[in-house]
């Protein structure tokens, strides 16, 4: 079917427009690659700062079919161009970045009118983008890079505040209610809530959501009923680990370690650990006696010396057993390495998909927003275990060590390890089957638009 669809139709041009976050542009790029393989030309539009994080991930194979289009934000003194991405953005500048993004709407409309694509695929934070497309009679589809479960949770409370979420396995712990409030703050801000619904309403017939039905069917169906749109899952969209920059020192270090002996510790592209969490985690890693690679990040523009953020003498004590990497590490490549036996993760949406894809059990340490829900989902699916904090919300080093040992080493954790392996196998066998449905939907959408004489 796929080849027939490719041969019999003309190439479709699509502008893809993610929010300015690495956790968003990265799944957009992965979807772009899968569409490009099926006779689409993609124009991926973002700020130069955000595009720079994916430039070298496109590769020769897609050099002609995936084109990068720069969107320039207005000049604001407090937001130099290096901050035109959430990656490393000092948290207090997030509202300014959102404001500058919105101010760039006319620039985006200009880009769209120049390219005149057959379709726009846009993210949830910019309901003004499908409006610009509508003015040019270009169909537009929203692509949500979070899971169906978290999106269903959010829209449930937007629509029915005060009424319990129908799936009790997804919940926030008492000490996480502050994160829930932050996630749902839009529910109390009429304008923000309206924008979220506007974004969806302006999506032509379908909404694309990252993930797959095997773990999210019931949430997808519920989301569809909440939004009145067909939800089309696009799959796990995990990057090909061979495409990542060569970090041979890290890989050589891993090569020396035993199979499944090492945990990878990383908290995504946006979040920075508090000093207290950092110390408890460090002591927990020490106590666990398990090898580790830990990616430590500090906000851009803030000078922090690594040793000062770690317990005194930590690096000397862990010595060969632990590798601390400052800034960034090739996560997919590391998770795909046979020495990795566990993933201490904040449970960002892409990270949990990567854990499942590479069969690495997850030691969940959710930090904020939707991450507690993703952590609960991983436990429910059976591929992870959470480090539960104390009643004040503080991380405890003994608990960190105990969960790491349970998941990676102890016999009691065998079922989690087996489930993770089985999940990886399932994902491998399935391949990119969701993308065929996505292509079918998109092709139909463009064809209907043309038949109706809009184009
Ligand atoms: C507000 C939050 O945005 C989040 O994005 P974030 O970047 O933190 O996390 P991921 O979705 O795991 O995405 C992180 C991505 O960056 C990659 N990576 C990260 C660090 C590194 O050192 N090397 C890498 O290759 C990693 O492989 C993954 O693909 C999520 O949406 C989350 O659900 C939401 O709560």
TrEMBL record:
Keyword Transferase: yes
GO terms (BP aspect): glycoside biosynthetic process
PROSITE patterns: UDPGT
Signal sequence residues: none
Domain of life: Eukaryota
EC number, UniProt record: 2.4.1.-
One annotated GO molecular function: UDP-glycosyltransferase activity
Name of the protein: Glycosyltransferase
Source species: Fraxinus pennsylvanica
